[in-house]
Design goal:
The chain is an all-alpha fold. The chain has a domain of 42 residues. Helices cover 72% and strands 0% of the residues. Helix 1 runs antiparallel to helix 2.
Amino acid sequence: MKTLRDAFFWTNLYLFRLCLRYMDWAGFGCGDLIDDMERYYQSRKGRPAREALEGLARYWEPES
């Protein structure tokens, strides 16, 4: 079950990145976020979903 959950997580993350690319193409200006997500995705790919999600959470933490 854990492996299936990890597969769903990585698939959803891939689809989210794809949506961001279309938004950037449409002129919403999210290219920096796409670049960060791409680097993050490549560095974490294949790791357990919980570990990867904890690292991804930093994108939504308020800046201090």
